[in-house]
Amino acid sequence: MDTRLYSRILLKLSGEALQGDLSYGIEPKVLNTLAEELKELVELKVEVAVVIGGGNIFRGLKASAAGMDRSTADYMGMLATVMNAMAIQDALERKGIVSRVLSAIEMKEVAEPYIRRRATRHLEKGRVVIFAAGTGNPFFTTDTAAALRAMEVGAQVVLKGTKVDGIYDKDPIEFPDAKRFDQLSYLDVLSRGLHVMDSTAISLCKENNLPIIVFDMLRKGNIRRVVSGEALGTVVTEESHFSESLRSST
């Protein structure tokens, strides 16, 4: 029988998660699979908030490195997240799941403005809430937006979906002998320079004791498994168990 360990979650996805095997843009099959997974959570009575990046359309840091003004590049990246959020909303509502896009940059024709109490009310009513446009400020990543929104709406955990099954001591794609951590503390992540979320996001989670679970979102059903309490991926909490999985990435 399906159970749930968490009743309110924030799911953090990179924009690249939506592009699948494409080099750019949104892969409809990936979008459809994501919508099916989120529908399962709604049916379990889990309140779901989502923060999506925009890297599949535009990467502000890359443009800034090429000479574009950083603020301009970051605002363009925020607009890309709105496009992704609208795509997720459309996929959800085609499956009968009511959702709302709340944007940190006002664009009332396509999204509601972000208001904390409004977001919380939508969650209480069982609507999937998709937060777009990051924090609405340049120089802040969508990782930071995820940590911030999770705390504002009272999420119990941040679930970070990635292309690998947790946090490793080095890139498991490049290094076959990479070791996966089962559990880390926030300080472990910061001191070892592990690229999980940016340091501002990790620090925010640490200050508010908000756990992070990093897991493989490409395997169908994993989102539900994590929410149900199965031991998947890597858990980042205040306590430091600093344990490495015996399995390598092979």
In short:
The protein is α/β, with parallel strands linked by helices and 250 residues long. It contains 8 helices and 11 strands.
What key attributes describe this structure?
250 residues, alpha/beta, Carbamate kinase, eleven-stranded mixed beta sheet, 8 helices, 11 strands, 36% helix, 22% strand, disordered C terminus
Which secondary structure elements does this structure contain, and how are they paired or packed?
Blueprint: E1 8-13, H1 28-43, E2 47-52, H2 60-65, H3 70-93, E3 99-103, E4 112-113, H4 116-124, E5 128-132, H5 142-153, E6 157-162, E7 167-168, E8 179-185, H6 186-192, H7 199-207, E9 212-216, H8 222-227, E10 234-237, E11 243-248
Parallel strand pairs: 1-2, 1-6, 2-5, 3-4, 3-5, 6-9, 8-10
Antiparallel strand pairs: 7-8, 8-11, 9-10
